[in-house]
């Protein structure tokens, strides 16, 4: 009976430790991704090249949206075309952190939302 008890306790401990390892690994991966902040060259290239190009894409999207608006109204997809042609380029231009990729910015937003929820509780 003593051998059975030891074996069952050992099995339960191994199962608990094994089940908790993926959680710790996910937390470590998330923190590594958040610590991977943009460096100076990414920030400078984003400021000098990417942001002006995205601003031009936003202006171009406004022009294309205005030209296609009568057809969008007839098709009933004004919201979708506005989102695709204006809102998404403007969001990438003006709301994304400087030097961040869209993936880094999305991770940052999710992390901030989760941190805010845990502080409210």
Please give the largest β-sheet: none
Mean pLDDT: 80
Distance between the termini: 46 Å
Beta content comes to under 5%
The H/E string reads HHHH
Which descriptor suits the 3D outline? elongated
Individual helix count:
4
Percent of residues in helical segments? over 70%
Instruction: Tell me the number of strands.
Output: 0
Overall radius of gyration? 24 Å
SS class: mainly alpha
Low-confidence stretches: none
Note the quaternary state here. single chain
Features:
121 residues, mainly alpha, 4 helices, 88% helix
Structure overview:
The chain has helices at residues 2-35, 40-75, 78-94, 102-120. α2 (40-75) packs antiparallel against α3 (78-94). It is 88% helix and 0% strand. The protein is mainly α and 121 residues long.
Protein topology:
Elements: H1 2-35, H2 40-75, H3 78-94, H4 102-120
Helix pairs in contact: 2-3
Compact overview of the structure:
This protein has 121 residues and is mainly alpha-helical. The protein has 4 helices and no strands. The protein has a domain of 82 residues.
């Amino acid at each position: 009976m003593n051998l059975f008890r030891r074996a069952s306790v050992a099995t339960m401990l191994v199962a608990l430790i094994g089940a908790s390892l993926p959680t710790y690994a996910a937390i470590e991966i998330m923190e590594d991704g958040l610590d991977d902040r943009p460096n100076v060259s990414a920030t400078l290239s984003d400021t000098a090249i990417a942001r002006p190009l995205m601003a031009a894409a936003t202006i171009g999207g406004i022009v294309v949206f205005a030209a296609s608006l009568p057809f969008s109204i007839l098709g009933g997809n004004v919201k979708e075309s506005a989102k695709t042609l204006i809102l998404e380029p403007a969001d990438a231009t003006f709301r994304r952190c400087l030097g961040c990729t869209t993936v880094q910015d999305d991770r940052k937003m999710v992390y901030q939302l989760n941190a805010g929820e845990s502080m409210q509780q």
